[in-house]
Design brief:
Number of domains: 1
Shape: elongated
Distance between the termini: 24 Å
Radius of gyration: 15 Å
Number of strands: 2
């Protein structure tokens, strides 16, 4: 997989951010990837082969 850092700008079931900004929470914000069979298909667009194919198509245009 090739995952651009910008995906965390719009978190979803796979790309999660935890701000810990509620009263009493003191941890620093966290960003992560939640991989499970249920949401694995969300990662399809980031498959290495797919990303490279899109990149080469854009370069050829």
């Amino acid at each position: 997989f090739i995952i651009p850092s910008g995906v965390w700008e719009k978190p979803n079931e796979v790309f999660v951010d935890r701000n810990y900004d509620k009263p009493g929470q003191k941890s620093a914000p966290e960003y992560g990837i939640n991989i499970s069979l249920k949401n694995y298909d969300i990662l399809d667009i980031f498959r290495f082969q797919e990303v490279i194919r899109e990149f080469t198509e854009k370069k050829l245009c």
